[in-house]
């Protein structure tokens, strides 16, 4: 550990710590553009200049100590870039001295020389570092009287990205991300001086599945997402911390929504899961949540209209007829709470045949896992992953299974044909969108999507993480746990449960790895569990 003075206070930091990180950890914010904690340091924007000093030394190279017993500092007349400087023993730094303030104003003036003054129409407005720092360090007028350099606008450089080079400040974050993290060296600078622009290499496009991370880390409005561009002002969005459900990793995310509609999803930093990155395929796979084709009303075949109470009772009557010929197909996309209540429901109904649909897929060795289900670990822990899916499919085909309950899945994905579904005496289905299963079902119970509910899941690394509700469910769709609770009461009777927190409390009491936990104790970053092998 090295002793470093930050704005008059002595702190200790490990050897190798970058000076900008030391300042940040000490509570002294240092404005910056090119610096990013997950990327290499080019030191080219010069916005992070600070005043630096080292201990005064005697002729025999011993530090001169002041009245407080600490070294006296000799300050350098030249500022230093804090992002490319590592701390050393006895180093001192000033982050807000007159010299530093003047340097930042000079850097900001140069950055704005050729930058267009179009903040009101820029898609980055509201979360633009250039806009923010110009308020603090910029001038109200410009001394620049020459003609501005005009650079390209609205360049289509990939299937998901638009580039406005006139707004680029040459921080090189996008270039370094593609080289160092995405391992796809497709971006670079061309030309020199004021005419420098960022672009894709000849014959290439920015089509990597991690390309939208460059939009996240771009400090200005140079790189924008085609999907989100001009669709909503960011200051209108409500951000909800949650997790991605497209694969078993459970990337931490922020859901940006307004008036019951999701507009974008961005990654949320969690060193134990996804660092601060996210694949494009996952972040864009949310539009079905806003689909006008969502199931919004409970239905019972043969009835023109029905209430939730009638639909649940109709489903329970079908299930209770013969538990020995009934099977349940659950989903490893369900939360732990829902899987827990599914197990209770099966016990109350006397159903012994149940399983979840596995989703093996090709991972990318980075943030897309080989498991396409977000909660396979939870399904295994709660005993719902039994390996009986093929047996259930064969039973439906042979006629030995006469009643099938399908929770959040399409039975045709489970090896059961539409013709076999037609053979069933009774088919009960839950879900958010119409499928071949809901079309054949006698009772359909509409439920909430992952963005519309609270709950927990366990990722492939055994980390317990929390879903949070970003928007309400459409129409009369209800939370899955409420539907399962009502079905359990209807088929066998049970005590009422009124909140998802109560469900988790009962779950934690019965499942050893969750003992002592609550939904609130999971926190924003999750809890690492020790699961049985």
UniProtKB/TrEMBL annotation:
The cellular location(s) given in this protein's UniProt record come to: Membrane
What GO terms describe the biological role, i.e. biological process, of this protein? ATP synthesis coupled electron transport
For this UniProt record, give its keywords in alphabetical order, as a comma-separated list. 2Fe-2S, 4Fe-4S, Iron, Iron-sulfur, Membrane, Metal-binding, NAD, Translocase
All copies of the 4Fe-4S His(Cys)3-ligated-type domain together span 99-138
Q: Which CDD domains did the record assign? A: fer2
Q: Which SMART domains match?
A: NADH-G_4Fe-4S_3
Q: Which GO terms describe its molecular function?
A: 2 iron, 2 sulfur cluster binding; 4 iron, 4 sulfur cluster binding; metal ion binding; NADH dehydrogenase (ubiquinone) activity; NADH dehydrogenase activity; quinone binding
Instruction: Domain (4Fe-4S Mo/W bis-MGD-type): give its ranges.
Output: 237-293
Entry annotated with the keyword NAD: yes
The record ties this protein, via InterPro entries, to: 2Fe-2S_ferredoxin-like_sf, 2Fe-2S_ferredoxin-type, Mopterin_OxRdtase, Mopterin_OxRdtase_4Fe-4S_dom, NADH_UbQ_OxRdtase_75kDa_su_CS, NADH_UbQ_OxRdtase_ferredoxin, NADH_UbQ_OxRdtase_Gsu_4Fe4S-bd, Prok_molybdopt-oxidoreductase
Q: Does the keyword Iron-sulfur apply?
A: yes
- Tell me the superkingdom of the source: Bacteria
Q: Name the coenzymes or cofactors required.
A: [2Fe-2S] cluster; [4Fe-4S] cluster
Q: What is any one of the record's Gene Ontology cellular component terms?
A: membrane
Question: What family does this belong to?
Answer: Belongs to the complex I 75 kDa subunit family.
This chain belongs to the protein called NADH-quinone oxidoreductase subunit G
Source organism phylogeny: Bacteria, Pseudomonadati, Verrucomicrobiota, Terrimicrobiia, Terrimicrobiales
